[in-house]
Design goal:
single chain; 274 residues; alpha+beta; Nuclear Transport Factor 2, Chain: A; 2 domains; 7 helices; 12 strands; globular
C-alpha cells in the first residue's frame, strides 16, 4: 500500500517515548519526514515493515523500493492525510490516519493504522500497517496473523468489558460500554460509522445474528489512559470458524470513562457485516 509521510513522526515518537529506548539521530524533535529508505540509518539493528499489500519488507534495497512505489502510488491518487490520534504505550505506539484518495474518478477515505514497536537493545524496529482492502478493491483480502496470541494480554476497565461482551455476542452488554452518543467505525471508511445507543444496539444485534459473538486472539495491548489499542487475530464469528486474520482496534474513552469511539482496522469478512 503506502508509506505516509506522517508515519515518520509516529516512528520517531515511538522511539522517543518508550522508556529507556533508543533515541535515533537526528532527534525526533527536529525531523518528521522519515521515509523507508532512511529507516536503516535510524535503526541499524534492523527494520521490518508488514504492509497489507506489499507484505513483509526488509533490507535496504527493499525499503527504498517500497518508499519509491508508495510515493508514486500516493501521487497518482492525489492523496492527502488527516491524523486521527496516536496512542503511546511503554512498548509501542499506534498511529491512526484517514487517507483521502481519488480512485477511478471516485473520492474515498481509507482508514489506516500503524503500529511501531522499537527494540531498544537491538536498535531495531518493527512496523505493522493495517487497513482494509475493500475500499480499494471492492472485496476483502485475507490477512494472515502477524503476531501470536499472548495469554497475558488483558485490556483494562471498560475495554475489557467490551471484549467480554463481544466474545459472548451480547448486544445489550456491548452497547452499554459506549457513551450515549458513542460511535463504532468499521474498517471500510467513515461512511460506515454508527453512533448512539439505539443505533448501536441494532448494529450489534445484526453482528451477532450469526449464532454468537466474535472471538479474537489478543496479541498486544497499548494503552495511554484515554485510548486502548488491541492487535488481534479474528478466529471465529458466531458459528463460523475463520481463517485467523490480523487486525488492530482502537477504543477511545469519553468523559464518563465509557467508550466514545471504537475504530477498527482489519479486512475480516464474516458471515454478517454491518
Amino acid at each position: 500500500m503506502t508509506w505516509l509521510t506522517d508515519f515518520g513522526r509516529v516512528v520517531l515518537e515511538a522511539s522517543r517515548n518508550r522508556g529507556g529506548g533508543h533515541r535515533p539521530t537526528p532527534s525526533p524533535d527536529t525531523r518528521s519526514d522519515v521515509d523507508p529508505g532512511s529507516l536503516g540509518e535510524l535503526f541499524p539493528g534492523g527494520v521490518r515493515i508488514d504492509d497489507p499489500d506489499a507484505g513483509r519488507v526488509e533490507g535496504r534495497a527493499a525499503l527504498e523500493a517500497y518508499g519509491a512505489s508508495s510515493a508514486m502510488w500516493l501521487r497518482e491518487r492525489s492523496a492527502s492525510t488527516a491524523a486521527i490520534a496516536t496512542t503511546h504505550g511503554n512498548a509501542r505506539s499506534v498511529g491512526e490516519f484517514d487517507l483521502s484518495l481519488a480512485v477511478d474518478g471516485t473520492s474515498l477515505v481509507l482508514p489506516v493504522a500503524i503500529v511501531v514497536e522499537p527494540d531498544a537493545e537491538r536498535r531495531a524496529v518493527w512496523i505493522r500497517i493495517y487497513h482494509s482492502q475493500w475500499p480499494l478493491l471492492g472485496h476483502h483480502v485475507l490477512r494472515p496473523p502477524l503476531l501470536a496470541r499472548d495469554p497475558v494480554v488483558h485490556e483494562s476497565d471498560i475495554v475489557g468489558e467490551y471484549q467480554a461482551a463481544l466474545a459472548a455476542g451480547d448486544a445489550a452488554r456491548i452497547t452499554a460500554t459506549f457513551e450515549p452518543d458513542g460511535c463504532f467505525r468499521e474498517p471500510a471508511g467513515p461512511q460506515f460509522r454508527v453512533c448512539g445507543t439505539t443505533t448501536l444496539l441494532g448494529f450489534f444485534g445484526r453482528f451477532f445474528s450469526a449464532g454468537g459473538g466474535i472471538l479474537l486472539e489478543h496479541c498486544t495491548v497499548t494503552e495511554d489512559g484515554v485510548r486502548t489499542a488491541l492487535e488481534f487475530n479474528a478466529v471465529r464469528w458466531g458459528e463460523t470458524t475463520l481463517s485467523p486474520q490480523a487486525g488492530v482496534a482502537v477504543y477511545e474513552r469519553g468523559a464518563t470513562g465509557r467508550i466514545r469511539e471504537a475504530r477498527i482496522y482489519d479486512d475480516v469478512e464474516g458471515p454478517v457485516e454491518g
